Amino acid sequence: MTNISFPEPTITAVSKPFWDKINEKQFYLQQCEECKQWVFYPRAHCPNCFSSKLTWKEASGQGKLKSWSIVHRAGHPAWQERTPYAVGVVQLAEGPSLLTHLLINEQELRYQLPVEISFQQLNERLLPFFQKKGD
Ligand SMILES: [Zn+2]
């Protein structure tokens, strides 16, 4: 196949701190200083109490698998060579959920499977994928 590059994440002023930390192999989430709720995806205001006092803090990178799907026909040609692969929703230990690429065999996927972050190089950038805990 020709050399088609993977699509890059869209980085905004609000989400830039998240992606900068990912590139350092660190997983940071916003936490609200008013109500203490953890926030993901990155936002300007807390979705719980609307405070703008959100602080970036290191998160555990741990979670449990909530839902998943096996992709056979990728939404972008660069990903087609990697099919079939799994994507899923991980409920992070801090509370919020994250849609992510899963580095888990189809046979091992199950509800509430403990998972952890795995930083994967794609093009010039690291991306936060998830794997089975302890792999
Ligand atoms: Zn809040």
TrEMBL record:
Residues 19-54 form the ChsH2 rubredoxin-like zinc ribbon domain. It comes from the Bacteria. Residues 56-120 form the ChsH2 C-terminal OB-fold domain. This is DNA-binding protein. It comes from Gracilibacillus thailandensis.
